[in-house]
Structure formats: C-alpha cells, structure tokens
Amino acid sequence: MNKIKLVVNNEVKKNEKEKFFIKKELQSILNLYAKMVSNGTWKDYSFTSGKKEISFNVYQRASDKPVLRILKNLKPNYYNEKYLIKDKNGIILKRSENLNQLINKTSWNKLRLVK
Questions:
Q1: In the chain, what are the domain boundaries?
Q2: Which end of the chain is more exposed for a tag (fewer CB within 10 A), N or C?
Q3: Distance CA 57, CA 70 (A)
Q4: What is the Cα 69 distance to its own chain's centre?
Q5: What is the chain's pLDDT, residue by residue, as a tens digit (115 residues)?
C-alpha cells in the first residue's frame, strides 16, 4: 500500500509567491520611472532576480552597469533593509521597510547619476 502524506501550512508555497515585486510595488516603481523619463533623467530599465533579492535597474544610457538599482531584499537581516536603493558601485544610498516611503522621501533630482 502507498504511503500518503498530509502537508499542513506549507511555507514553501508562500515564499515562492514573493519572488517578484507585487502589483502595488511595481506600479509605484513604474510611476517613478515614467516621471524620471519625462524629465529626461532615466532612459531604460531592466529587472534582475536572484535568491536573495530582486532589483529594478535604471540606465542613463545603454551602458554595461545600471546607474541606480531599487531592490527588494527577500531575506533582510534588519527590518529596515527590505527595500534598498544602490548606486552602480553597490553602495546603499537609502533603505526602508516600506517602498512607498522610500520612493516618496527620496529627492530623485538631487541623486546625481555618476558616470
């Protein structure tokens, strides 16, 4: 006779759903992107995903490295490191536990895109 397993509260499926930005997060990021494209500051974007983080990469030109990265940290060490903004060298410019606060409180015009 075959053995049957009963799985209750399977945490694996819950974690698999959060491997990308949710709709509200993506909408706020794309609204920011549209605003910065209309200013002429940003030109292109891409997404990068890994086991620990997902990033929205911003390009000033068709260059090798993105000039800014908005990251969603899937395994943060601290509560305020769930969302990060990094420059092209990987230095953390801003961090927050809420993406909307991070986007709204950052003065994007003062962030200079360094070549």
A1: 17-105
A2: N
A3: 7
A4: 7
A5: 577 776 666 565 555 556 789 999 999 999 999 999 998 888 899 999 988 999 999 998 776 788 899 999 998 888 888 999 998 888 999 999 999 999 888 877 666 555 4
